[in-house]
Design a protein that fits this description.
The structure is a single chain. This protein is α/β, with parallel strands linked by helices. The chain contains 8 helices and 14 strands. Strands 6-5-4-3-2-1-14 form a 7-stranded mixed β-sheet. Bound molecules: zinc ion (ZN).
């Protein structure tokens, strides 16, 4: 399995257009040692020349055009190597990119029933995907057991890879309707994703609220873990003057503190662990900061755009 991180920042990217926090201002001035980052987007390839996206970021169009592997086959009109999209939440940052994929192209969308409903019923604009012939095909994403994905033409062949969702104790995006909240559970609106191929497991959770403990088992079992690195501290956003909401209120476990991710992460987990979905205010983006050093010394890698991993 090959995996590419096409974008590694949280919503707004880094630097963010309306932000003059220490990181964003320092990056613009050229005084901060860091890399610019687009909004979080992951892709994986279970077999050569077939790719699946995890999330559909607002930067998806440019992320696709900058990746040579995603170029459509000139010999096979209308065939893109992108076969489908796994959606791990109904958040604007992980679904907005679907609108970039609206050019009469059929593909699979893997989503929980709640996310599917959010896109079909709450937001009519996503019906633009139905213009494709055949239309976009929805596949159920469930935590009730792993589901096999068959890519072989040979009907007797075993599944190419398996997938299941992991409840991460998510929260509703604040723009969902009351009616939607009444008729769904928050657990289905933000999920982690567990992929499995040849006994190797990848756990992906760009949003981790910490309200459920299920993610710990998934992190323990995985060979590669891509995890929520949005905020360093709970009150980080209050310093920007744009919102008083805490990291926890926004559904993200901060990295630091006794209840934070670094403390909560299972000590017996063996897999490679990478932080992504990093907010522009997070001091780990500053490659000369103590926080940056702390996460590296704790054995984490910090994702950057273009990072490629073979498993
Ligand atoms: Zn900023």
């Amino acid at each position: 399995m090959r995996l590419k991180i096409l974008g590694s920042a949280a919503g707004g990217g880094f630097p963010q257009w309306n932000c003059s926090c220490r990181n964003c201002a320092g990056f613009r001035a050229g005084t901060l040692r860091s890399k610019s980052r687009t909004q979080t987007q992951i892709a994986f390839s279970p077999v050569p020349e077939v790719w699946f996206l995890v999330g559909a970021s607002p930067d998806l169009r440019s992320q696709i055009t900058m990746t040579p592997e995603f170029a459509p086959d000139p010999q096979n009109l209308g065939r893109s190597p992108i076969a489908g999209v796994f959606l791990s939440s109904a958040d604007v940052d992980s679904v907005m990119g679907l609108l970039h994929l609206r050019e009469f192209q059929s593909f699979f969308v893997f989503a929980t029933p709640a996310v599917e409903r959010f896109l079909k019923k709450e937001n009519r604009i996503f019906r633009v995907l139905d213009r494709a012939d055949p239309p976009v095909q929805w596949q159920m994403l469930s935590s009730r057991g792993r589901i096999g994905c068959h890519l072989s033409e040979n009907h007797g062949a075993p599944p190419t890879f398996f997938y299941r969702s992991i409840p991460v104790g998510g929260s509703y995006p604040d723009y969902t309707s009351e009616e939607f909240r009444r008729s769904t559970t928050a657990d289905e609106v933000t999920v982690g994703l567990l992929l499995e191929q040849d006994n190797r497991k990848i756990f992906i959770a760009p949003s981790l609220s910490g309200r459920s403990r299920e993610w710990i088992k998934a992190a323990q079992s995985a060979d590669l873990v891509l995890l929520d690195g949005t905020f360093w501290s709970d009150d980080e956003l209050s310093q920007t003057g744009r919102t008083q909401k805490t990291a926890t209120e926004l559904g993200h476990l901060p990295l630091s503190g006794p209840e934070g991710l670094l403390e909560q992460y299972p000590k017996n987990a063996k897999g490679r662990k990478i932080l992504l979905h990093i907010n522009n205010t997070n001091p780990i983006l500053d490659e000369e900061s103590a926080e940056h050093r702390t996460v590296l010394e704790a054995g984490y890698e910090i994702a950057y755009d273009g990072m490629t991993i073979d498993l």
